[in-house]
Fold each of these.
Amino acid sequence: MNHSGNRHWRRGLLALLLSMLAGHSWASHAWGTYHWARTANPFALQVGNNMTADWTTHLQLSVQDWNNPIGFGASSTPLKVMLVAGRSSKRTCSMVAGTTQVCNGKYGFNGWLGLASINISGGSHITQGTAKMNDSYFNLQSYNTPNEKRHVVCQEVAHTFGLDHQSVDGGSLNTCMDYFSNTGANAGSTLSTTPNAHDFEQLTLIYTHLDTVTTLAAGAGSASAADIDIGDDPRSWGVLVRQSANGRSSVYERENRNGSKTVTHVYWTQEAAQRCRSCDHRFETHDAQP
Ligand SMILES: [Zn+2]
Ligand SMILES: [Zn+2]
C-alpha cells in the first residue's frame, strides 16, 4: 500500500468511528441509528402536508418549533423542516421517496392515536417516512384538545427525523417526545407540546457526520414502491420488537422484499394500554367509545 492510499484508508476509518460514535454511543434518544443521508448540514427535509385545516394549524406550529432550536448554545439545528404541499392522500398516506408525508383521517377504532413509519435502507438511512393522526379518537371529546393534538403531531413528525422518546412513563419532561397526556384534568396544560433543548442536542448528535450519498428528495420526490407502505391492516407492520412497560408505546419492524426495512412507532390510546399493558394491542378488540 502506498503512502497516500494508507492515509486515505486511515481517514476512512476515522470517519467510520466518528459516525459510529455519533450514531450509537452518545445518543440517548435517537431512534436506533436511523437518519436521513445527506452530504451537507443544515439540510431541508420536505414534510408534505396532507392534513385538514384544524390539524394544519397544529402541524405548522410544530414545524416552527422544530425549526427554532432552544437551549444553551442551541443556535442552529441541522434539520430544517420544509413544509410543502402533500403528495399523498389522507386515507392511505402513501410514502413518497425522500420526504415525510403527514396525514390525518378516521383510521378506525383500532387503539392507536398516532403512527409514524420510516423506511430504512442500508441498515440506518431513512429513505421516506409517514406520520398519521387518527381522527376516530381525536374527534372524541377526551382527545379533541388542541394541546393533545399538538403533542402527538409534534412527536409523530419527529420520529421521522430519527428521534425516539425521552420518556414513556407518562410524566412530563416538557417535550413532545414524552407520553404526558394533555387530556382530562390536563387538557388545558401546554406541557409537552413542544420540543425541549435535549431534542435539539440529540438531533445535532444524530447528524454530526456527513454521508457521501443523500436520501432526501431532490425535487418533489416520487411515489415509492407500493410494497414499502404500511397498510390499514396492522399485520403489515411486521413483528413487535419492543413495547413500553405501561403499554402505550410500541415499535414494529418489517423486512421488505427489496431489502429495506420499515419501522413503525405506535402511540396507543390510554384505554388500549390500560386494558392489557403487555399485550400486542393489534390483536385486541377496541371499543368505539373508550
Ligand atoms: Zn449516515
Ligand atoms: Zn412515539
Note: The radius of gyration is 19 Å.
Amino acid sequence: MQWLFNLPTAIWRRLLLILQGLWALIWLIAAGIGALLGKGGTIGSRLGAAIGGPEGQRKVFAVLRLFQPNLVIKRKVIASYPNNGVTAIATRHTDVTDILTRDADFGVVYGPRMEMITGGENFFLGMQDTPRYTRDTSNMRLVVRRDDVPTIVTPYVSTAAAEIVAMVPGKIDVPQALTQPVAAGLLDRYFGTPGPSQAAIAEWTTLLFWYLFIDLQADPDLDARAQAAAASFRDWMDGHIAARRKGRKTDDVLGRCLAMGSAEMPGMSDRDIRNNLIGLLIGELPTLSATANLALDELLDRPHQFAAACAAARSGDDATLAAYVFEALRFRPLNPVVYRRAMRDTSIAAGTLRRRKIVKDSIVMASNLSAMFDPLAVPDAPSFRTDRPWETYMLWGYGMHACFGAHINRAVLPAMLKPLLAQPNLRRAEGERGQIDKAGTPFPQHFHLEFDT
Ligand code: HEM
C-alpha cells in the first residue's frame, strides 16, 4: 500500500519538473529576445551576459532536466584532455550521482596535467580507483586529520579573519584583504607550507588550478605560464622540505609527512610528499577564497537573507550563519559541473526513457548545480531555504573523488565570513567596485565592500 501514499508526491514532483522547465524556457526566450533587440556589444556578448550568469545557467538546466535530461552533443567542449569529441551533459540528480559513483565507467581525466605539474608523477585526483589512489589518499588523511578542523583550522581562521576585519577602516577589498590572506595563512599555520611569499603561493595555486580544471580550450599562453609556475613551485617545495628536515620538528601537515617519511612508509619519500602537498595546496587556496566571495555576493543580492545572515553573525548563531552561507552556494557553487571521460562504451540512465548510450572516450559532464535544483530530488528547490539537510549540497564533488577538504570547507567558509558579516551596515561599494572583478582570471580578485565604523 506504501506506493499508493507515495503516488501523490511522485505526481506532484513531476508536475514541478514540467512547470519549472516551461517557466525556464519562457525566461530564456525573453532573455534571448532582450539580447537580440538590446544595444551595445555583439549579439553573442549580450546573449552571454543575459543567460551566461548563474541564473541563466539554472534556467538552461531546468529546461534540459525536462526536455533532454541527458544531452549528448557531437562537439568537442574540452580540448585540454584527450577525448573523442562527443560531450554528454547529465542534469538529473539521480544520473549525476550515478555517474560520479561509477568510477569504472567514468574516469577522471586530469592525469596528464597533474604529471606536468609534478614533473612526472600523477596526483590522486588524477588517478582511477587503484591501490595507488588508496595508498596516497590514506597517507594524506593521516596528516590532514578531521580532528584538526575544530582544534586548529577553525580557531586559526576565526582569529585571523577577526584580526583583519578589526584593522580595516570600514572599507575592504575582500579577496585581497581577507579571503586570500586567510587561505594562505592556513597553508602556513596548518600545512607548514607558506611559500616564498603570500603573493607567490596565491599566484602559483591560482594559475595551476585554472590550468587543471578551467582551461578547457588548452590556451597555449596559459600552458606556458603554468609550466613556469609549476617549476618554481616544485623548486620551492624541494628547498623547503630539505630545510624542514634539518630544522626543529613541528606538528603541522608537513611535519607529520616528514615523520611518516622517516618511518619509511610507502608513498612518503620527500618527492612523494612534495607532489601530494602541491596537489593539496592547489585545491586549498583559490577554492576557499573564491567560494567565500561567491557566497557573499549571492547573499548581498538577497537583502532579506543577507540581513538574516548578518544578524546570525552578530549574535554568534554559527549554525544559522552556516545555513545561509551554504544555501547561498547552492545557487552559486564554484563549479557547476564535474567532468569525467567514459572508460568504455556504456550508458546513462539504463532502463529508462532518458537512457543515452555513451561511447568510450566521450566527455561526460555531471551537473552538480542542476542536481541541487532537481525537483524530483530536492523539495522546494527554487526557494532559498535554510532548513535543508546537509546531503542536499553537492558543492565540492560527489563519490570517490569528492573534495578531500570537505570538512575544512564546511568549517572555514562561515568562519572566514563571520567577522565581516557582523559589521554594521555592511554593503557593496558604489558602482563597479562593489561587484566581483576577476581581473582576467576565473576567480574573484577584487570585491569592495564597506561598513560603518
Ligand atoms: C570551497 C572550497 C573547495 C571547493 C569548491 C572544492 C571543490 C572540489 C571538487 C568539485 C572536487 C571534485 C573534483 C572531481 O571530482 O573531479 C574536489 C576534490 C578535491 N579537493 Fe577540493 N574544493 C575545495 C576546497 C579544498 C581544500 C581546502 C582542499 C585541501 C585541503 C581540497 C583538496 C581537494 C583534493 C585533494 C581533491 C581530490 C579528492 C580525490 O581525488 O579523492 N579542496 N574539490
Note: The mean pLDDT is 96.
Amino acid sequence: MARGTIIPTLQLLLLAVCCATTVVHGKEWTVGDSKGWTFGVSGWERAKRIQSGDVLVFKYNPSMHNVVQVGEGDYNSCKVSGPSRTHTSGNDHIKLAPGGKAFFICSFPGHCQQGMKIAVTA
Ligand SMILES: [Cu+2]
C-alpha cells in the first residue's frame, strides 16, 4: 500500500469521530423516520441511541392521532389512567429529560394496541 493513502484515511477517521461526538448533544429524532408517528411504529426506538437532551419529533395528522406521554403502566396497558401529558400539534418536539424512561402512546381508540407506542430510555 502506498504511504499516501494512509494519511487521508486517518483524516477521515478523525472527522468521523469529531462529528459523531458533536451530534450527541441535542440530536433530533423523527419518530418512525419517514413514516412518522403511525401504526406499527413501536420498536422504531430500539436500535437508536437516544439520550437525555435529545428531541423526539412526532409528525402526524392531528385529526387522526395524538401523542400522550404516560407512565410505564399506562404504556403497557394502552390506557391513560395515571398522570399524562397530551400533545396535539401534529409536529410535536419533545425534549427528553435525564433519568429513566419516557413512554409515549397515541390515545385514539385502538391505536396504541396497533403499535402506536414507544418507550425511550434517556
Ligand atoms: Cu393514533
Note: The chain has one domain: 26-121.
